[in-house]
Amino acid sequence: MIFFAVSILTLAALLAAFPTNTRNNAASIPLTRRLNVPSGQTLPEIDKARAQAFKSTAAQRAQKDSSITPVPVTNTAVLYTAEVLIGEPPQTFDLIVDIGSSSTWIGANTSNPYTPTNTSTATSTILCVQFIEYGSGLFIGLEYNDTVTIGGLSIPNQTIGDAQWALGFEAGVDGILGLGLLDAYEVGIAFAPPNSTSDPNGELTFGGVDSSKFNGDLTYTNITTTYPAMDYVGFNQSVTFGNQTLLSNTAGIVDTGTTLVELASDAFATYQNLTGAVLDSTTGLLTISSAQLDNLPSLFFIIENATFELTSNAQLWPRALNSAIGGKNDSIYLIVSDLGTPSGEGLDFVNGYAFLERFYAVYDTGNSRVGFATTPFTFSTSN
Q: Which CATH number fits domain 212-374: 3.40.50.620, 2.40.50.140, 3.30.450.40, 2.40.70.10?
């Protein structure tokens, strides 16, 4: 697919503009889940391409100092969207929430174009260009200053990107709300296992955490110093399956643009062997029998001194959504997939939605850390 869009503003700049008295109070906005699997592609293929884009992007950043860098933001199968208001009177835009991107733009939906208002000011007539690593496209658009409202907080004179072209997005999606590595700000994200292809089942909290969304205490770990995971929301963890270690204190990332849990190829091969799963050519996912499910051990993620458990049910693709990915209604699919590269390369796992729908996550890059906690959905059997 080819994507044409604009990438102008880091959300960090917008959040930094929150007045001191409002930043002391957390603001939350609801998130809606959408399933968007392009024809001819499987979930693992899409996730693997995204992971490779992360690695190649980091490599290009290391080789040159440039304000124009590849940003892998659009090639994703499971989307969470949030409403953002722009202008006065306000226009409503439905934006994809993406931890892997640090840029925010609108204009993907031609039926909901951005119209300058009384509070709008054009900042430049020069087109802004940014390359995207996969999808082979470029970002082109215009800059405006306008009032932006998120979660009831209105911030005047914020720069936004207005895309002149946007191809390849699901109907109704207006652009990207890039969270990336926010500057000195805290964002909490709560998801839940889905029941349909379009669920209002998440919440994004700016300026703090929503303690009603998780159990007990948060476990924080520092952003990793290992390249290339350090360029994203990267951290170190170990992964075990039952009593078998798959990855030992290695670096990877957490990413809302990735659908599955990706493990380095050697770790994935061990997981597949231990489960006895067979690769399904139609969906690209591992599949197991009912008897194998009855004996499926938990998958454990060890972060600092805490252990986060993906139960046997949590390792399953939601069976109610089998047909949405071209699968059989009575088949049992697993959400662990192959990263496509061996361990030891500095990005050995990606904890995607399948992980985040079971655990609360906090991105606190002002303190260079990320936090996790269990939720009421951690041990849910909804899949």
A: 2.40.70.10
Q: Give SS3 for 357.
A: coil
Name beta bridge partners: 361.
189, 372
Whether residue 279 contacts residue 288, with contact meaning beta carbons closer than 8 Å, is answered with no
The pLDDT score that the predictor gives to residue 255 is: 87
Q: How many CB atoms lie within 10 A of CB 381?
A: 10
d(CA 257, CA 253): 11
Whether 251 shows a pLDDT value over 60: the answer reads yes
Beta bridge partners, 263, equal 338, 349
Enzyme catalytic residues: 98, 255
Tokens of 276: 């006895």
Query: Using DSSP, how many helices (H) and how many strands (E) does the chain show?
Result: 6, 24
pLDDT digit string (tens) for 110-124?
Answer: 889 999 888 888 876
How does DSSP classify residue 325?
A: G
Burial 84-105 (b: 16+ CB within 10 A, else e): bbbbeebbebbbbbbbbbbbbb
Classify residue 380 by its DSSP letter.
Answer: -
Write the DSSP assignment of 223-268 as a string of letters: PP-STTGGGSSEEEEEEEETTEEEEEEEEEEE-TT--SEEE-HHHH
State which amino acid sits at residue 315: Q
Q: What is the CATH number of domain 4-187?
A: 2.40.70.10
Which residues, listed in sequence order, are joined to residue 102 by a DSSP beta bridge? Answer: none
Q: What is the pLDDT of residue 205?
A: 82
Measured CA to CA, the distance from residue 217 to residue 67 in angstroms comes to: 39
Nearest to 36 by CA among 170, 167, 174: 170
**Burial of residue 274, with CB atoms counted within 10 A of its CB: 0-12 exposed, 13-18 middle, 19 or more buried:** middle
CB 74 within 8 A of CB 256: no
Q: Measured between alpha carbons, how far is residue 110 from residues 118, 271, 317, 353 in Å?
A: 21, 44, 33, 28
The rounded distance, in Å, linking the Cα atoms of 79 and 346 is: 26
